[in-house]
Write a structure and sequence with these properties.
single chain, 850 residues, alpha+beta, Barwin-like endoglucanases, 4 domains, eight-stranded mixed beta sheet, 26 strands, globular
Amino acid sequence: MFRTALRNVLAHKARLLMTVLAVTLGVAFVSGTLVFTDTLKKSLSGQSAKDYAGVAVSVTSYGQLVNEKGEKEGEPGLSQATLDKVKALPGVASVSGRVTGFAGVGDENGKLIGAGWSNQGANYTPVKDGKDPRYTFVAGAGPVKADEVALDKATADQGKYAVGDKVRVATNGPVKEYSLAGVFTTEDGAVQAGGSLVLFETKVAQELYLKPGYFQEMSVAAKDGTSAEKLLADVKPLVDSKGTRAQTGAALAEKQAKDIEKGLGQMGTMLLVFAGISLFVGIFLIYNTFTMLVTQRTKELALLRAVGANRGQVMRSVLTEALVVGAVSAVVGLISGIGLAVAMRSVIESFGAKLPGGDLVIAPATVIAALVIGIKVTTVAALLPAWRTGRIAPVAAMGSAHLPASAKSLVVRNVIGSIISAIGIGLVVLGVSSGGDNGRMTIGAGAFFMLIGMIVLLPLLSKPVIGAVRPLLQAVFGIPGKLASQNAVRNPRRTAVTAASLAIGLTLVTTLSVLGITVGKVVDRMTTEKLKADYKVSMAGGMGYLDRSVTETLAKTPGIKAVSPQTAGYFMVGDDFRSASGVNPAGIGQLLNIETVSGSVDSLGKGEVLVAEKTAKSKKLDTGSTIKVKYEDGKQETLRIGGVYKDMEGLLSPYVLDDKILSQHSEESAVSEVYVNVEGGASKAGQQKVVDALGKNPAINVATQQDMRNEMGGMINTMLNVMYGLLGMALIISVLGVVNTLAMSVFERTQEIGMLRAIGLDRGRVKNMIRLEAVVISLFGAALGVAIGIFLAWAVGTTMAKSLPNYELVLPWDRIGIFLLLAAVVGVLAAMWPARSAARLNMLTAIKTE
């Protein structure tokens, strides 16, 4: 029986090749994801170990903490006095303090070098022989004067800077020029991520990022013979406070490795979800393939039963075929996955990110996972066809009696499908009523049950749905159209399995598309309806806050008629911390369209506060009410509510007041953006005026309204394109499924096709019949997928509506039309081989076929 199984595998290479391809795609994605994440994890963990190789103890300060009364406690960082105390300990070889923050370097055109989120500045701290062991200088030396900096080699090369050149460096304040003292190489994570690193003299860095005389981190090196644990025990009493944490360098490296593993785990989970979708869709293809192969070999299997093979042997023969196919698919998928991992690395690096080097990691667990998944998926999918094979009576099989499913089995199936679908719909409705993250989780569970229920009910749905389009097909395409619609529902189970794979893919694609387009429209409306400013000034890459000098500089610039900062702050209202926005009362009305429910925006100029409508309702506040607030510095004040405005989430906090009031109670700048209007309205000249006023600062971005729309729209489109690419793999498998179904249909109707040819149906109309059958099945699955996708998008969108102002579901009919058109194209392409085979049948030979 084993030899028979192997012979059957080799005898049906073409059809089994499609199964191999389907399983290979899923396995390749799983193994590729595992290889890529394991390799990156090892590389980044190795880098963390290098970073802390010479660090026995590391101390981190989290700055001043805010107590329950809203008052700041503790010191802003680790003082020089604390470092001196630690340095005096007997087991300490050296101590170095570190401060870090944002620093951007401009190229020769004034544009920011590197990704904004990973452009860092730090202090240069020589600890031994006048050198800092974290950096290897390839030219010059570290900065020792206030007007000197050092740059990493990649940044210096990109900016074409050499030692002695003047370098324009921007932090969150005005851009400044420094002399380049040296160029270095480093394993620093910011540089490895495609950013830049600027080293300042320590006092300069402290003034920029913290406070003179204080550090954010302290690294302690141990003398020979002193253990890190012993040194940690000695250091802790000297730095013990609520705002600090001391740990060994090894522990910190291990923690970073775990954080890396967690971060990569989230990315890996997302990729594995799509691999799982592809494998799930592949199950339908495998099921159809083995059903077809078993049907084609009915006589052969019956003969085996007649000569003594029992049901178990026949069933095991089919499962052996599945085992062989699964093993081949797993091996090919694993090899393909390794190639995919290399390709993923290249794609990421093409976007400017620099991944640490290292050999590919092919863990035993990855190999086992690939083999288990490939073999298990194939075997499970083939289990039902194998079981049915064993139940065919030898006499019935010898007569080729392919009996359809009994009415009883279809009734049972329909009842089960209805129950599962009802559970799914109920969970979705429950999730909508619950709202929030928990509601979306419930909707996700409901979507799963809905899809399973749909798959079970598809045979029931296929007859009425396809029957409804039969008159149209007959009217347009004549006899081939009528025959195609009849053939599509001749075996409702097989049609259902084929349509299911397309329905699953289109459900996910439609849900993501509708949500993406809807959120994009909300953002667009918010920009056009709520934002009246010509420009928004912010830090490049969304890194950090602007210096207050930005607002002051723009307010003094000729040709600029309105300026307002958007300062992010907070105060306590009763026992609760509440976010607040500080704005310029004189200009905010010209820059943002603030609609008041009661009161006036002008009340801001009187020192009064505006409250968002939702907050006002929840706190039972109204215009004229007063609230007692406690600021960051601990001072208390009673504020009068001068107006209640319609919520502007994403633009303003629930409480809005004069920036002068909010800023005088905060030591640190927190200007997230500055809105600007210029005389004559938005134009390229007006934008350049703002850029010039800020000294052509490479770290500051001046965005037009269109830029703001494009920024959010670009993010949404990028996300959708990634999703389309990942889900495209599932659709490829769906194409193979349609090919299999049509090939099966042609095989079963060989005699019928011969009769049709004999009574006058020419080859062209035979091809049309097969093509139309494929298009009908494809569109049937696609239409169901689109319908369920729209329903799920509505459900998820409803849970998001409260957090998105002016939310309104948008159905992208153009994209939905493209999806349906692609489904039809899928049908046409999938029908090419079966249609050609059917048209080339010899009519006399076909008529004699049993």
